[in-house]
Amino acid sequence: MLIQLILLWHLNTNISVNEKLNWKLVRDESAIQVYTAQANGDAFKHIYATAILPAPVSKVVDLVKNVNRYKEWGYYCQKSELLVAKPNEIIFYYVSDVPWPLSKRDLVSKMTIYDINKEEVMIRSHQLNGYMPIQPKMVRIPESNAVWHFKALANGSTRATYTLQLNPGGNIPAWIVNPFIAIGPYETLKKLQDLCAGNGK
Known about the structure:
The protein is α+β, with helices and mostly antiparallel strands. It is 23% helix and 41% strand. It is built from four helices and ten strands. The protein is globular.
């Protein structure tokens, strides 16, 4: 019970921090809403997205934990490889095949799964700098902090919320990235919706 209270406190802290930012709705369709906000000290905008996924929480969590399937729903995901798997902790290698003329991005990420209760799960992930040598012709993502929060709905679906703070690395100016930063989260959630509905592979 104490662990659950601590997790809920951390979750509520994140929500209150999100609410302090001036979130702007930039896309709203297919039961998906994507917001962006500029935080002090960060050149790249933060992302906050919500979606209704037509599957129970357990199925959604299984999809997110199965990193080898990320190519099916991750936006511009070229490769996702499992490195370490523990009951509530996963370390994986991820490659993003961003459009030309930009170089591919990669990172090693650590994912931690928190079962808050039977109807609610939170998943946090962040980059692990120095875990793997930088690969040729790749730009290593220096900062990536993401939080998934899944909550069961009465009709058997799942409400998903996703927050992301990302520095893509390299020499990309923020003024080029920020206008397009909401595309990836929307396309990712849309493909995840399709998989949950059985329309994916």
